[in-house]
Amino acid sequence: MKPGILYLHGFSSSPDSWKASLLAEAMEARGLSGRFFRPRLSHIPDEALAAAENVIRESKGAGCSLTLVGSSLGGFYATVLAERHGLRAVLINPVVSALTPLERYLGKQANLQTGEPFELTRDHLRQLEAMEIGAISPERYLLFVETGDETLNYREAMFRYVNARQYVMEGGDHGFTRFPEIVPLLFDFCGL
User: Residue 90: which CATH number?
Assistant: First the structure.
């Protein structure tokens, strides 16, 4: 099986975000663009997870062994998928429990990348709650957090993934300012 990456973007983001685009360019530079997947994830959690699971199934059938790379809410989804499918995951400033940080966004929203309007409902939060994973297999994970994350408490991720390989970087923000610096570590973990 050839190694590949499935990138899962965060809440109100898109596959054209800064990190996703930078990773796509890095994969292309290595001649690996055919093994990089970045689906557009719906704001409806069940649909987002189903889209990612479709990519996992299709890539497996094509002889590609994926590592998940999830940013923010994409990190939450990556954890769910890693445990369900026995995959490894790189988490970047991940949402640990989807309910706490997302409750403040209930109601009408606009995608920060595309401007597309959508509404976050209590039913969406219930879908996320139903996805919650209890115990994890820490050896599956590589965690990157920045202490300056203004959206999430980085300590919660450190605690959740306590026995996983972790990089805690001073400063930064929720967008993860040092992403270009960690790409080589990410590729190494992914077997690229």
Answer: 3.40.50.1820
